[in-house]
């Protein structure tokens, strides 16, 4: 077998055989297929797709590239959630401790920023001392003692995804349903969770721009979960506008702590509670009340214990940016559009994301939103504050936000998109 013939098969719209898929994933993981060859194959998959059998074999090969975890020693049922990625999507941060406070064990293996979307690990690393890399024993011990752990997948878990994820991020090959579905589900199945709630984002700021694509991604992942005995449900949620009022690493941690303290933006609270209810239901926990766990401080307690158990100081001040730039409303009226993709790109250009896979991210870079669609704004009021440590980035980031919003005549009606359960 050789990489060139596998690339040619997909380039020419053929079906990859099980043997080709098993070989290429294994050879890439071992370093026998080069990054540039895998990038070419990913691009051919993005352009020409894969059928259900190919996706299933590709996912199984990614699972088989590493070890599988086992949580059967835990006394609590396990429940996990995964978002397909969005802008300002900090939901994992309040959600994991909240669901733990309600009685489930949440083994949340998370990723880094991908394209214009932020990554949970990059966000949490803005907390002084916090460590994303835990050994399997450490992960199990935090999960057992706190009920929630958010960490990087260990080197042994789906190593093929680790390499592919970083490669796709910098080769324009993120937005392929087979690659997203296999990336997410290989990690979740190898991780060994009993149940999984998928938050499939749809809209400009998501990888899936249309409801049809989001449905296809959701049903592909639900099918892969069922094939491997993981109870999997999916919510389709709006990502045409950023979630909450922040996009960027430390900015999003701050907002998540506000939610855990009983405040925070209503869309973040609403989605956190909706996903918590689905996770508890999928884990078979019927009598818990997540809204109460937010209000009575038990979710905050779990957060503090989780951060401390991973070396972080929950009381340490979060980094703040050296430079800010404020974008003001040019007219009075109703904000009818604030585009999630544009805001995500601008946050990424300010330093919240990576241009090359080895790049560091700036903890304090990002964007604060001072109004959301549906809000009335007055001429001259701040709409956005851009944050960075490197002010030469402002011009490039401002290019991305110039057309990111619309202010319509006062009184214009505005409705938000509902959450859809698949
Ligand atoms: N999240 C993942 O883990 N992988 C993807 O490909 C996209 C989002």
Structural description of this entry:
The structure is a single chain. By secondary structure, this protein is of the alpha/beta class. It folds into 3 domains: 3-49, no CATH class; 80-309, Nucleoside phosphorylase/phosphoribosyltransferase catalytic domain (Pyrimidine Nucleoside Phosphorylase, Chain A, domain 2); 323-408, Aldehyde Oxidoreductase, domain 3, CATH 3.90.1170. Helices cover 44% and strands 15% of the residues. It has 16 helices and 13 strands. The chain has a 4-stranded mixed beta sheet, with helices on both faces. Helix 1 packs parallel to helix 3 (35-48). It starts with a helix and ends with a strand. The model has no long low-confidence stretch (mean pLDDT 94). This is Thymidine phosphorylase. It is an enzyme of class 2 (transferase). One of its GO terms (cellular component) is cytosol.
């Amino acid at each position: 077998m050789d990489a060139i013939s596998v690339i040619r098969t997909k380039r020419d719209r053929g079906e990859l055989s099980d043997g080709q898929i098993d070989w290429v994933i294994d050879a890439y993981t071992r370093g026998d297929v080069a990054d540039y060859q895998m990038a070419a194959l990913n691009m051919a998959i993005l352009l020409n797709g894969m059928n259900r059998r190919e996706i299933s074999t590709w996912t199984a090969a990614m699972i088989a590239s590493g070890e599988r975890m086992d949580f059967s020693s835990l006394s609590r049922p396990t429940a996990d959630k995964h978002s397909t990625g969005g802008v300002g999507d900090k939901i994992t941060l309040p959600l994991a401790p909240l669901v733990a406070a309600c009685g489930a064990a949440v083994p949340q293996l998370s990723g880094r920023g991908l394209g214009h979307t932020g990554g949970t690990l990059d966000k949490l690393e803005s907390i002084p001392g916090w460590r994303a890399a835990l050994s399997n024993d450490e992960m199990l011990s935090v999960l057992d003692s706190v009920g929630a752990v958010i960490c990087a997948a260990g080197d042994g878990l789906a190593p093929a995804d680790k390499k592919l994820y970083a490669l796709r991020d910098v080769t324009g090959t993120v937005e392929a349903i087979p690659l997203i579905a296999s990336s997410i589900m290989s990690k979740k199945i190898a991780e060994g969770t009993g149940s999984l709630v998928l938050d499939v984002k749809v809209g400009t700021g998501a990888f899936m721009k249309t409801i049809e694509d989001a449905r296809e991604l959701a049903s592909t992942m639900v099918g892969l979960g069922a094939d491997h005995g993981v109870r999997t449900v999916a919510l389709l949620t709006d990502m045409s506008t950023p979630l909450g009022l922040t996009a960027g690493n430390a900015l999003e941690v701050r907002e998540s702590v506000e939610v855990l303290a009983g405040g925070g933006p209503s869309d973040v609270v609403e989605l956190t509670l909706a996903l918590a209810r689905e996770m508890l239901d999928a884990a078979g926990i019927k009598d818990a009340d997540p809204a109460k766990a937010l209000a009575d401080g038990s979710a905050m307690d779990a957060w503090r214990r989780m951060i401390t158990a991973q070396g972080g100081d929950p009381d340490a001040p979060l980094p703040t940016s050296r430079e800010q730039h404020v974008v003001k409303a040019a007219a009075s009226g109703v904000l009818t559009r604030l585009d999630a993709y544009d805001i995500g790109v601008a946050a990424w250009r300010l330093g919240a994301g990576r241009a090359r896979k080895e790049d560091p991210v700036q903890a304090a870079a990002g964007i604060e939103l001072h109004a959301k669609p549906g809000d009335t704004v007055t001429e001259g009021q701040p709409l956005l504050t851009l944050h960075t440590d490197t002010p030469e980035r402002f011009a490039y980031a401002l290019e991305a936000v110039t057309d990111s919003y619309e202010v319509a005549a006062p009184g214009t009606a505005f409705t938000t998109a509902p959450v859809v359960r698949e």
